[in-house]
Amino acid sequence: MPERKFTVKPSLTTRGLLPENQETPLEFLQADTMNNYQFFRRNHFEYPALNQASYRLLLGGLIKQPVSLSLQDLYRFPARTLKVALECAGNKRGFFEPKAFGEQWGKGAISQGYWRGVPLANILDLTGFSSHAEEIVIKGYDHGGRKDSDKTYPYARSLPLEKALHLDTIIAYEYNGQPLSYKHGYPLRLIVPGWYAMASVKWVRQISVIGTAFNGPFQANDYMYYPNKETDEGAFPVTVQNVNSTIQSPQDMEEVSGRRHRIRGIAWTGQGSITRVEISLDDGVSWNEAAFHASSSPYEWVSWQYEWKPDRAGEYSILSKATDSTGRTQERKAFWNRKGYGYNAMDHVKVRVH
Amino acid sequence: MPERKFTVKPSLTTRGLLPENQETPLEFLQADTMNNYQFFRRNHFEYPALNQASYRLLLGGLIKQPVSLSLQDLYRFPARTLKVALECAGNKRGFFEPKAFGEQWGKGAISQGYWRGVPLANILDLTGFSSHAEEIVIKGYDHGGRKDSDKTYPYARSLPLEKALHLDTIIAYEYNGQPLSYKHGYPLRLIVPGWYAMASVKWVRQISVIGTAFNGPFQANDYMYYPNKETDEGAFPVTVQNVNSTIQSPQDMEEVSGRRHRIRGIAWTGQGSITRVEISLDDGVSWNEAAFHASSSPYEWVSWQYEWKPDRAGEYSILSKATDSTGRTQERKAFWNRKGYGYNAMDHVKVRVH
Predict the structure, then answer these.
(1) Which of A101, A188, A199, B149 has a CA-to-CA distance to B330 between 20 and 30 Å?
(2) Is the CATH number of domain B13-222 3.90.420.10?
(3) In chain B, domain spans
């Protein structure tokens, strides 16, 4: 009888089931793109039930005339393919001190791959819109109750005209060369590169041009930075991804042996491109440059590495710090905010070398 | 075309892949027993490749005569079925302050179900053994290197005679009515109820009676409580499970709405039985009795619940505390030890009520 082989593979980390929130096991992946089963799942509601056959994308509001488009209509537009790292605004929330309420995400509420679709601008070119237009509202099919309200709401977000009309803001119908998966927004997902992923509305139902500031609860209550614990004073919206980096290996509190180690991880930014990744092996006293290849897309992460030859056994406090082309860099401590968004302190792992 | 249904289920939480260490998503299970895919996986080495056809259990050392038994031989012994919660000695290691090196397990390195097999005592009755016998060594097929050594070792552990000969210490060949799964020890796993699960050796290869104290590294180096960070002074072995409890719902930093909540979880002990579970809603100032049914087996956990009607919105610090029939109870802070074993502080979650 042949010997039995065992398969060992990482699983998504469950953070919640109703709605489903599952995290990519980023520490255990060396992949540059995530497949549908590795991609993190972040939902606000139960998955919407869709009737695929009758699907049409609705356009309304301050446009020249209401329009609805079938998927076949959309496939006839010129398409763009973008490599984008989508990152939940709550990525790394679990690291805030003091802790912030909400899903206690670790390092894996980020995933990347190739999104293909039609620039939102091209669709709006078709419909035309009023000169009073201020924002574009994108509403998904997902909807339900909120813990802070008795009403039900759809998931809906707005973009300022400038971001909505940027040619990299697309209505995507493919991921990694295949139709979107159900859990990740089939049939259409808005992709807003460079912004935290709350902007990339799934299961797009309707696009509306409005002449005011949209104030749905996922725009005006959630996805706001509240610097104060007790009041809403000083609140401002979550938009562009902060410059950030993550150490994938070694892991925090790992014990390692030997005299050569490859410290590796990723770095990304929502603005410009990553120009430097530095590693400290002495808790921030001194810094060393990590090696990486410049990204091919401004919206993808870079994979960096640093060859480490520890000269003694014992404990080490390892930090990673990324800097982008606009001069933004990571600080030792993240900007604390009540809802726990945009965590981007230097990443930190402690290891013991034997 | 019909509407599409989505399946949502929790995954094991990956803590390591080489060797495979994956945690049961206990917070998301209300089950009383775990199936093979929900059961936590804790390995010291790669999975061993076994030749099933030629498998024989070897017995040696200070026995009257060396013996080997086929699985068919074992099936002819009278069998016992025990409901047992197996808990990794490192369960909850991630909660130690200061942190302890090693796999950063959360609350899910514990799982339970029905193990069926032959009392080790009955097998040793068959072979007989010398009056000089002191310990029984159980060696698994799994083997490999260690981070603190250049040699390779098998996974092997010993039991004192008294525990080895207890009729509840069994060589198990079935889990939940089916042959053991490969990942959980097929064809045979020692089950040592009441002790942390490092004692429950998987893929049992050989049982040896010895006249000395076994000093393999998984007995004399690992699975020892080291109370001091820098020295081995005061070390003592990890054996019986501490009294313990876990809050499964709500989760830490969860936001909840409404005026009725069921706080629920489990409690267990390796000694006696659980006699009381208390819940505090004010960070330990006052305590309330949780309801539970007495366990049917001394080795299973009890599932408890407490119906909570918060009288105000805001933040709550919730604690759970279990007490067993031998008078052991949980303290606010766990006994810190360098390798991070036996964490059993009161469980603690913070929630916000809307």
Answers:
(1) A101
(2) yes
(3) 13-222, 244-353
**Interface ipTM:** 0.94
Residue type, B247: I
Q: Which residues of A touch B352 (CB under 8 A)?
A: 101
**Environment class of A64 (CB within 10 Å of its CB; exposed 0-12, middle 13-18, buried 19+):** exposed
Residue from the list A4, A46, A101 with its beta carbon closest to the beta carbon of B255: A101
pLDDT tens sequence across A338-353:
999 999 999 999 999 9
CATH number of B244-353: 2.60.40.650
DSSP A218: H
Distance, in Å, from the CA atom of A132 to the CA atom of A134, rounded to the nearest integer, reads 6
* B102 part of contact set with chain A, CB < 8 Å: yes
Please give, rounded to a whole number of angstroms, the shortest distance from the CA of B102 to a CA of chain A: 6
Pick from A5, A8, A43, A318 the residue to mutate for testing the B interface (most B CBs within 10 Å): A8
Are A58 and A68 a contacting pair, CB within 8 Å? yes
What is the fold of A13-235? Sulfite Oxidase; Chain A, domain 2 (3.90.420)
B296: alpha, beta or left? (left if phi > 0; alpha if psi -120 to 50): alpha
For residue A140, give the nearest of A118, A156, A151 by alpha carbon.
A156
Task: Please name which of A202, A237, A210 lies closest in space to residue A221, comparing C-alpha atoms.
Answer: A237
- The pTM of the full predicted model, rounded to 2 decimals, is 0.95
